[in-house]
Amino acid sequence: MSGSVPVVEYNGTSGVADPGYxxxxxxxxxxxxxxxxxxxxxxxxxVLLMIPxxxxxxxxLARRKSALSLIMLSMLSVAVVDFQWFFWGYSLAFxxxxxxxxxxxxxFGLMKTLAQPSVGSSKIPDLVFCLFQGMFAAIT
Length: 140
Known about the structure:
It is built from 3 helices and 2 strands. By secondary structure, the protein is an all-alpha fold. The chain has one domain (33-139). The protein has a two-stranded antiparallel ribbon.
């Protein structure tokens, strides 16, 4: 068959990333399709575009002199919330080893999330899923 993608053998399974860090594989993209990456990153960029919209909405509800400060406040919240999300928020919300209600800090600082399949879908890695969900945390 021409144009077919070769199946990667790793840890006895074919084409599936291991639940750990996958440090023995040189190319970590072999476990996932590039179309899934592109769709999730495009969706994360669209959610990121919603954040200034929330700032404009808030500035429309306030007096004219505080409009710019409310827009800047919504953009500043992206930095603050994403910092908290990437360090401990993602691990508490989407942990592989936590309980049903709250996770643990096994992925603190995005440890061991590079090629591990995400909780949401086995078609995308934890790192891309973390970015996508982080945008929703920022807009919230």
